[in-house]
Sequence to fold (195 residues):
Amino acid sequence: MAPWAWAVAAAPAILLGVAIVAAILASPNGTVTEYLLIGAVLSDAFATFAAWRDARALREAGEPVSGGLAWWCLLVPWAYLWARAVKRVNKTSGDWALLAGAAAVWLVVIVISTPVIDSVITNSETLNQARLQSQIASGIKSQTGEVTTVQCPQDPPLNPGSQFQCVATATDGSTTMVTVTVQDRNGDIIWQTGG
Fold:
């Protein structure tokens, strides 16, 4: 059993954990990139430490493995596991299972973290409320000639396909509902009155 080698294989899960924390903690003004950079540094540091401990354990067991082998983790953890499997004299199928396990962990991290990160990026977008209200009021004036003031919600959903309502109030006090639909992740919108 090689617990430190398995720790190297599982190290990318730290990056996934940080991506999930980013999804929970990211504020509208924060960036996901900062969280992911922290996760990558933590993951690499842990993998390098675990690889160093694993290489030490292999040397103590009589394997001709140098202490510098652990630095392969700075590329990616599976690079260390590949170099470990190649350099060992007493190779077993477990060495190759470690490499396959590391590849599986990376695959899981990519499959799970990609939608998590995308949702954080989408949810981190903020609405320029004043600009949107002015754009709708100008559009209504050009269509009908009426001067209106428009009030939109402070924090509406900004996911592509989501909708929210704004209220356009004319100078005589009459109101009209305006339905706003978010078109894409760039925050492009379309709107229509009477919705």
